[in-house]
Amino acid sequence: MYGVGPAVAWLIAALVLGIAELAVPGVFLVFLAIAAAFTGVMALAFPDLPVAVQLVAFAVWSVVAVTIGKRWYRDYPVEGGDPLLNDRAARLIGQIVIVETALVGGQGRVLVGDGSWPARGPDAAVGTRVRIVAVMDGAVAVEPQ
Question: Which Gene3D superfamilies match (predicted)?
């Protein structure tokens, strides 16, 4: 009665959703693409399947695919390339910097990249190389290199 038209439409939808996932990674469209592909295969196997049943099948396959996907990502989390990417302060720890304003009485300033940061640490003369060991209250804690 319905033929292969709806089945082809579901498979095209699966392809479009898969391509959209590649264009915008991190979205869950891949799970909907899987559900559309299963629905398309089911529509090919049963060509007289009413559209309402196909929509219900797509909904069920979507829930199944998303549930499996959530469990997969929970059990096998994706590691980022740089865990400190958005933590500027943590990225500073371990860097060697130059004292800009002498550290006297535990206070001074150091050059960090192209900026100057307040520093706390043992007394050090201008030009001394020190290592950042912590970042606290907008200042860096340093120690001799």
Answer: Nucleic acid-binding proteins
